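Before relying on records like the one below, remember that each one covers exactly one chain. Contacts with other chains, cofactors or solvent are not represented anywhere in the record.
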Amino acid sequence: MNLSNLLVVLVEPSKTQRTIIRNHLANFEISEIEEYDCGQDCLDFMRHQVPDIVISSMHLPDMTGTDIVCKMREDERLSLTTFLLISSETHYRFLEPVRQAGAIGILPKPFSAKDLGKVLHSTLDYIGDHEREVSDEEFESLSVLIVDDSKVSRRYFKNILGNLGVSTLVEAEDGAEAYEIFQKQHFDLVVTDFNMPNVDGKELLELIRQDQRQPSVPVMMVTSEQNQASLAAIESSGVSALLKKPLTYDVIKRIIIELVFDDH
């Protein structure tokens, strides 16, 4: 499969902006584009056909781009569909749910063709692995603990890891529950959010590093935290990889390979 085979759903109320995005897509030889100026028409289309990627603005006449991606993640048929937000919005209240839902990217207006190309190629990698039903024995044998208070985020990582072939996936809603599970079961990788109730990601990381059974297990922490002091504190606590949301499929795959397999 190549970029020209992608089916794109474009949701943008501005005709001018739709033209700009369509022209960018044409540069990648993408011509199969369904265009809508409101969210509900987009959702109605996706009831009958699953696209490869949804590209949406934030503010639409009837809803937001956040609403679209959250509704997609609630639908099993659309839970694997990549979502790209193109918006000049900077408010945490709007952007955080999009990051939590596993958007493949958030591009500002204006954006470059290079930035769009990275997202499109990541989508292609994601679809390619899914269609090949990756079943490498090394991935199949992994046991991964996913820790996040957001059910949507946990589902996103389950989809990504399942796509890579990982079959043993255990979920926890916060660091406290995760550490209870961690004490009873062996894991090859822990994927955790930072901001969580009860025991947050940093506190969980410290508990893991002090644990006698498996203190050196790779811990990949994902966050939308912007405070540099908090990020520095996480890095000094022995995190294996600290990644900022949103994350693309190819980045997640590369980091897991580096953390789990490159040392073997």
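Residues 113-132 form the longest helix (20 residues).
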